[in-house]
Amino acid sequence: MKSTLLKTARELRAVWMLLIVSLILFIATPLFLTGPNLLNVLLATSVTALLAAGQTFVIIIGEIDLSVGAVLGISGAVTAITLQTQPLLIGLAVGLGVGALAGLINGVLVTFLRMPSFIATLGSTSVLAGLTLFITQGNPIRVANEGFLAIGQSRPLDVPMPVWIVLAVVVIFGVLLARTRFGRYVYATGDNAEASRLSGIKVYRVKILAFMISGILASIAGFILTARLGTAQPTAGTGLELAAIAAVIIGGTSLAGGRGALIGTFIGAILLGVIDNGLNLLNVSPFLQGVVKGFVILFAVFLDRNSDLMRGLWKMLGSLRPKRPATPSTPATPQEPELASRH
Amino acid sequence: MDTPLIELVGVKKSFGPVDVLKGIDFKAYAGKVTALVGDNGAGKSTLIKGLSGVQPFDEGTVRFDGHDVHIVNPKQASNLGIEVVYQDLALCENLDIVQNMFLGREEVAMGTLDEAAMEFAATKALQSLSVRTVKSVRQKVSSLSGGQRQTVAIGRTVLRNAKLVILDEPTAALGVAQTEQVLNLVRRLADNGIGVIIISHNLADVFQVADFISVLYLGGMVASLATADTNYNDVVGYITGTKSLEGAAS
Lengths: 343, 250
Ligand SMILES: Nc1ncnc2c1ncn2[C@@H]1O[C@H](COP(=O)(O)OP(=O)(O)O)[C@@H](O)[C@H]1O
Ligand SMILES: [Mg+2]
Hints:
heterodimer; A: mainly alpha; ABC transporter involved in vitamin B12 uptake, BtuC; 15 helices; B: alpha/beta; Rossmann fold; six-stranded mixed beta sheet; four-stranded antiparallel beta sheet; binds adenosine-5'-diphosphate; binds magnesium ion; Ribose transport system permease protein (chain A); transmembrane transporter activity (chain A); transmembrane (chain A)
């Protein structure tokens, strides 16, 4: 019983944090809990949420993708340039192709060339950001294609299109991760790559696909950002990887790999958005907002890295409660699941 | 004796200049437990890795079920019905028992994982081994004891319809009670008609569970004996090289 509770505690960590922060904001300002404001939060979160969704796959396989912001930037720019002469579908296909290719290259660097993903994707970030500046010559690129702009600006059923896109991605990729063979292999690869290989799983393939998913979702994030602004900015996406990684970790996915869930990431991204929103509503200086978010991220990583410590504290709290009369239904178990060591 | 389930003739393996297996002959039978013993570095793990396709042999004949086979990767070994339970237990800590037992061959219905069918089959496989030591097949492996993990790894071979199960030091890290459990499991595998090869350093275990004993010494097979026809001291002699099959001290 206890172990189920603790297990869900990990997955539901972001939910608790979100509820607490929301409650504080609800008490602090009447502006927070209104339909339009909440939709604003979701809209503002959409880009981070997409980057974080892809990042979730990469972190679960035990790697990291620092290039998502740069992939977003180059996909947006390449799509904007393509749309100057080509129809919508070609523009989207080219943009998605750029993201998939970037992911493929990252994946190959990490698997076949055995580079640590931290370094490999840092390198590709530099390459991609440079290429984006080169092809745009440092200038914003205007997009006039109505269909494309609708990706960022239309509101079907009065809900912004980016929010619909994020919901679709969370559902589709959530099912992919939790309910398919590929998803199972993503977890297994991050958990024990050698065991996975011995079980006949093509680990390199799983890893490359995870990086490609990250790249493709970063492209879609690039579409949204470009369509919302009506221009592709030459430095779009810079630094967004940190927010994406933060959303993943806050969402309960372990940096050590092998554990996590897409829904947690989604809630983690919303939490970051709510904090942003709250700081704005409360007129906190923009200079301090980064500080607050930094603390949230550090706290999430602390929880991730010290979950054993936290479990210990939790248990101590439990043992302080008055003992119930002996429970004959639970004979001594051979070992306490809580004590099982990881790695 | 009927035809062996697996038969090796003149099998060799070297790593660079080092000849690790120097022409091995070996047999194991369906429904029997064959122990493979030998000192550290004798070549036991190398022999197993050849059989499982992880590190294919350089030379020699491998006959499985009477047919010549050339095993070059784990998938192929698995398709033949050869499953290995590795020394360091190839399990995923954060996956549960069912997920581990089906790892790499999940059942799928309409594009998504068929968890109910897998849970049913995993439970049945464990029941066929009379396993009563796990509370729930949905427990994560990280919450299991060493013996329970061995149980999961062995149960997985049953699930995969293994004909030959190879266990590398299955009791090395276990206490007395859990060792007993695992040895019972090994016996039950063989009683179900599966051929079992068990590597062990513990001769007490070997004499308790094995029908045949094969001894490797410095990359050569120095003895292949029926357990009933030999004794502890002789086997120790073969292992340490103070005795050879002809009975002459070397
Ligand atoms: N991949 C390898 N490369 C080089 N030498 C190896 C390799 N694997 C095993 N060996 C050597 O082969 C010999 C037999 O090893 P092994 O089969 O692991 O023995 P055992 O399992 O009987 O203890 C040892 O001397 C070991 O150092
Ligand atoms: Mg060994």
